Amino acid sequence: MAIASVLALGVTQLPKSVAEELSAYQDNLNIIEELISSSCLDCHTGADAEREFRLDDVIEDWKDSVRSGQTGLERDAAIRLEQALRRFSSHQMPPPDFGRIDEAEFVTAKLAWESLLADRAKQNPFAGQSAQIRRMTRTEYRNAIRDLFDLKVDVTQVLPPDSSSGGFDNITVDDLSPLLLERYLTAATKISRLVVGASIDQPLGLTVRVPADLTQQNHVPGLPLGTRGGVVFDHHFPRTGSYEVSVRLMRDRDENIEGIYEPHQMDVLLDREQIKRFELKPPKGRQGHSEYDKHLRFRIDVERGGHQIGVTFVENGTSLQEIKRQPFDASYNRHRHPRRTPAVAEVNVIGPFQVQASGSDIVRCGQLSWERVPNDPVDEARQVLTRCLRIAYRRPIDEVDLRIPMKHFDVAYQEGARFAFEQGLEAALTSVLSNPHFLLKTIAQPETVHGGTVYPITSNELASRLSFFLCSSLPDETLLRTAEQDRLVSDAELERQTRRLLASDRAESLVENFADQWLYLRNLPTITPDLRRFPNFDHNLREAFASETKLLFADVIERDASVLELLDPPHAFLNERLALHYGIPGIVGDHFRRVTLSPQWHRGGLLRQGSVLMATSYATRTSPTIRGAWVLENILGTPPPPPPPNVPTIQEKSGHVELSFRQMLAKHRNDAACASCHDLIDPVGFALDRFDAVGRWSKMREGQTIDAEGRLPDGTIVDGVEALEQGIIKQPELFVTAVTEKLMTYALGRPLTELDGPEIRKIVQRAAENGYRFSDLVCGITKSVPFRYRTAD
């Protein structure tokens, strides 16, 4: 019997369990009423409430609704109490200068608050309304093609980027405009031709360009030891035949080849085997530079399918040019960072020029592989497409699903000649890859369900949601079969499949897609610090920043460690380039390795890593405001309010008086419109100020001692990153809640609301029993109401 109903009936004789529950409910209500009255109503009462946020009417309305036999707290009041609980739990409210609440009182009030909102959530289940029809993101589309055909394609050349909302690009994907549909059709045509290869009757070209600021002085991972520089990449050869490979070397602003002061050897590799070696000698005269690349081309016969191409230089022990001063770690142009050796600018692959018959009747295309046998081609096509459609559409298929692809096959087959079967299959695959059942992820709403009702999604829909969450791609065979047998409805089976996918290689997408967006790693390629202030910065360091963070996140997943290790890990992942930048000795070689940390290095978790520190800085200097806001949103889960309109800019100069940037921010906070936000944001960012805009640690900057004293939202004074981390870890549920909310947003493809709060807290509380292991958070999400259910429109 619901507590509200018991109160309404005025029952005096109750079973002990119900009476105890009722008594606890009333006690909790009294605790929250007393807390809000004593600590909140001074500011949040009536029409003049601070930030127009009222709490004076919430408790009385709640009591009235309970007395009248209603289900309890109304939606609007629940939302306001969730917002207030968020600020209370992080000690932002009441403000530190109001006076700290006794710790025992704080814990009691927090538990009572959470209990009341959890009880309301039981009576009013909330699953949220993610869009019924959503298309795949560009990343998901690329991964789906990879898993379906074992084909890696650069979809950025065909499909536009997806816009982000709530920090992720899988939220604003509920539209499919005619222009975008045309792009998908172009992509489908291109991909089906690459998969089958029958209609490729003229050479195709691929150009791989190397970033201009990539230093090619050291070994490149994926290329043989004993080599330096160059580039390595995968390429799908659509037909067996002859292909031309050409290489262009880096040039300076005067179009002269860089770093070629003595002879060098350049190797071209196919699947790590040397297929060509070029002897490079210093050019003679201006004409020698302009025409130098003409001889760096050749043709080779290649079997259809995926291959790896590499271009690199043989390590030359005497290639270092003697100069009067220590060279920069960065070496990529003549004027500021002179190259000491030649470097690859781009590699071109064109073909096929002479198509040859394949040496095998087996066509290997990932899950679509088939073997040509001399039987009925229509039957053969039907078998191939049946396998393809089941995987592509993520569900069992029927004759209706086959009708359109087979129609396209029949037309192309009748018009074909030598490769009629392959041409028919290309046409059928094009129709599959442009079909809404492939492009769109749907959740059906039963006709019998009324608006506002929470209903379960189907097993196939759940399998698709699970796979796109953890793998950013289609469900694999095991998951498909489990869904078809309707076994995912079981908590135990759903957790089993979740843990299986987490342990698989496909879970790398959580690093490459989720962590990439959550931690702003996608922003790194667009960030270039001021090279006058940071002359040693280059693309190698940018890539090392991203690798360090990704390896830490991947390590937590692989070891199923506590997510708190993202803030305070026992080790770091470093290579020589990154270690030199951080001032850490004894790390040699371009490969990343696990390194036990030493306190004097000031390295470790996310708040100490160059990727995060650079992404939250300006090109010329640090930004306590950007860093503080990033920590509040992504680490503490309490994003600051948006800035008010017409906020004045920070005045970086004040007459003839030299001010530090900290002093400039203090002057900016004197404006009342700015103080309300900056008093919360800036003190958090100050604690990171000993790290400069490219993540180097120092006590001094521009001749002045760096003041890194800051303050957490609860008023705790912190001096430097160590104190900041420990202050956060003392309240682990704040960081774990922030991580869980980001994961849940990404998993559901919708922004979370205040009404998701009780479910988030349930996940975090259960994970606390085992030290906040990553898998426990993920399993909590996949077994949650919002993940398995939907609220009807």
- Count of individual beta strands: 20
Helix/strand-derived category reads alpha+beta
> How much helical structure, as a percent, in the residues?
40-55%
What general form does the structure show? flat
Evaluate the radius of gyration: 31 Å
Low-confidence stretches: 1-14, 318-325
Average pLDDT works out at 87
Kindly report the spatial arrangement of strands forming the biggest sheet: 2-9-4-7
Sheet-strand content, in percent, reads 5-15%
Q: Termini distance? A: 28 Å
Q: What characterizes the major β-sheet?
A: 4 strands, antiparallel
Q: Tally the helices: what do you get? A: 27
In short:
The protein has 793 residues and is of the alpha+beta class. Strand 16 and strand 17 form a beta hairpin.
Q: What this model shows, in words?
A:
- This protein is an alpha+beta fold and 793 residues long.
- Helix 2 (16-39) crosses helix 5 (103-123) and helix 24 (732-748) packs across helix 25 (757-768).
- It is flat and about 85 Å long.
- The two termini are 28 Å apart.
